[in-house]
Design goal:
This protein is α+β, with helices and mostly antiparallel strands and about 250 residues long. The chain has helices spanning about 5-10, 20-25, 40-55, 75-95, 110-125, 150-165, 180-185, 215; strands spanning about 65-70, 130-135, 165-170, 190-195, 195-200. The structure holds flavin mononucleotide (FMN). Flavin mononucleotide (FMN) binds near residues 31, 121 and 210.
Length: about 250
């Protein structure tokens, strides 16, 4: 374990209290892809990662590990490596999903705004304030259930960030450079990089998330039939967004 004097003083620093409120945070933690240039102080990183590491896992085995990359030379190389593939990935997806067609031709449409946000995100990936690689130490053969011991910790990370005024987004951008990233950061072969998360101070606001109506997502004792209480509260905003159905998913 390496500790400098500023980090050892964190041992005496209690966890923060926050003003967001748990339920409110659940409803309005958006995917944040635009960040200010502010670095994330060590104390905030400690508090966010502390929340992440408090997540549940099967038998409390805690297979999650977090590689936190800020501004070291290796961090910069990792951000650039993943950022370059993100630029390629987005260029293909933008063309494939026809982001500039249909409502995308209108610069004020949600589709156009999303495309601009994504372009800004990938173009600036190399300088995100923090790039976090949530990793899973595999202790048995891969199974569809294994993520259940990993992704709650990732959500804790995002909600911990939200509580402290930060924001982030999960991505799969590391996929095509996983081998290079593992070599760069000495990540063992049997460790699975479960996703990437970028974090920073949001440029702009979180806001309430939009999802499908509850009745499409919550069923009673017959598949597809919502119970009577599955009614969205007043003011709920909806979307069925996702990739266009007519083109192959990338
Ligand atoms: C498993 C998973 C993979 C994702 N992959 C990406 C990605 O590769 N790039 C990206 O920009 N966002 C990615 N996201 C973020 C989603 O697009 C985002 O959470 C979703 O659109 C909801 O956004 P909202 O909460 O702001 O409404 C991913 C999210 C999840 C949970």
């Amino acid at each position: 374990m390496t500790q400098d004097s500023s980090s050892s003083s964190l041992a005496h620093q209690a966890s923060p209290t926050d003003s967001v409120g748990l339920y409110e945070g659940l409803l309005n933690t958006r995917a944040i892809r635009r960040y200010t240039n502010d670095p994330i102080p060590d104390q905030a990183l400690r508090d966010i990662l502390f929340a992440a590491t408090r997540a549940p896992s099967g038998s409390n085995r805690q297979p999650f590990r977090f590689v936190v990359l800020t501004n070291s030379e290796r961090a910069k190389r990792a951000k650039k490596l993943i950022g370059d593939t993100a630029i390629e990935f987005w260029a293909k997806k933008k063309a494939n999903d026809q982001y500039d067609k249909g409502s995308g031709a209108d610069p004020d449409s949600p589709k156009s705004r999303m495309a601009r946000t994504m372009q800004h995100y990938v173009d600036n990936f190399y300088r995100v304030p923090a790039l976090i690689l949530p990793c899973m130490v595999r202790y048995r053969e891969p199974s569809p259930m294994e993520g259940a011991s990993m992704y709650p910790a990732v959500q804790n990370l995002l909600l911990g960030a939200r509580a402290l005024g930060y924001g982030g987004v999960i991505t799969g951008f590391h996929g095509s450079v996983e081998a290079e990233i593992k070599e760069l950061l000495s990540i063992p072969d049997d460790v699975f990089i479960s996703c990437t998360v970028t974090l920073g101070k949001p440029e702009g606001q979180h806001g309430s998330v939009r999802r499908r109506p509850m009745e499409e997502l919550v069923f009673g004792d017959s598949w597809g039939e919502a119970p009577g209480w599955a009614i969205d509260p007043p003011g709920t905003r909806f979307t069925s967004a996702g990739p266009p159905k007519s083109v192959p998913v990338v």
